[in-house]
Each structure stands twice: as C-alpha cells, then as structure tokens.
Amino acid sequence: MTRIIAGTAGGRELRTPQGRGTRPTSDRVREALFSSLEARDALSGARVMDLYAGSGALGLESASRGAAEVTLVESDRQAASVIRDNVARLGLRATVLAVTVTSALAGAARPLDLVFLDPPYDLSEEALAGDLEALVSRGWLAEDALVVVERSKRSAEPRWPAGLQPEKVKKYGETVLWYAGRLDP
C-alpha cells in the first residue's frame, strides 16, 4: 500500500494504477528523498513538476508538504485518471496532464523549482537525456532549481546537459536517486 508520508495529507492512502507497469517509489525511498528536500528547504512554496508521474506519489507528497504549485505528467490515460482521483480524494491542489513528457515540455515553460523524473526503467538513456535537455533549453528551470532522477541501479548515470550540475547520488536497494542543480547561465 502506498501512502502520503507527511504533511497535510500524511498517512492517507494513494491508489496506484493496476497492471499498467507503474512502479511507485517505495515509502523508504520517498521518506529519504523528502527528508533531503526538506533539509534544503526545497518544498515550501515550490513550483514542482512530476514527470512520468505514475500514481502521482512524488508530486502529491510535495503538495502535502507545502509546494505551491504541482503539475503531474502521465501519458497513460488510465494512470492519469487514478492520479486525478488521488488529487480529489486527498484534497490537494495539483494539475494533471495526460500527455507525453515530450509534449508537456514542448509547451509554454514556467520556471520550476523542483522537477522529478521517474521514468519506466526501460526508458532509453537517449530519451531521458532529451527530457533533461528540454528542461534546460526550453527554460523550465528556475534559478535555484533542483532536478531529481530516479532510475534502476543497473542504469547508467543520466547524461546531464549543459546547465545542470550533478550534486549527489543516493542508492536504496534497486533504486538510485540522482540529484542535479541548475547552473547559472
């Protein structure tokens, strides 16, 4: 069972898409991730985007912990419907876009403070590199933005584009979190 860990919706259950290949971030990894983000004061009032949102756990945890604006991007329509249901049931403010990440990033950019990329493990390194490049080149990242990529421990380090500086790597069993910050232009 997946739950919101803390904040205004702390302890409340999240529905997850069934049989759709969705791999929600484990409670252990989310707890460590959000402890790290709160230590950086990266959540209060933040503009957040959760790409490849799945169940919406990362974006909704952000909303529960004080993010001002949360956008969840999920191309699978059934999964997007589950996320919308989670948003409504939890009473959190968030926008759900049922489009591909490529389509979402091709739209009008709004500077974001925090971006999560938790793609399916079988997403190619080239596709992930393209997503990261679009975040930088299309103006999606605010001055002090943080990008967090979740991948399998068998995946290579993301190919960071110019404009993103890797900061740290944290490993949790099969899961690896890669953190990168925006470099000043």
UniProtKB/TrEMBL annotation:
Q: Does the keyword Transferase apply?
A: yes
Q: Which Pfam families match?
A: Cons_hypoth95
Q: What is this protein called?
A: Methyltransferase
* Organism name: Knoellia sinensis KCTC 19936
Query: What keywords appear on the UniProt entry?
Result: Methyltransferase, Transferase
PROSITE patterns referenced in this protein's UniProt entry, alphabetically: N6_MTASE
- Cite the GO molecular-function annotations of the record: methyltransferase activity; nucleic acid binding
Q: Name one GO biological process term.
A: rRNA methylation
Ranges for the region named Disordered are 1-27
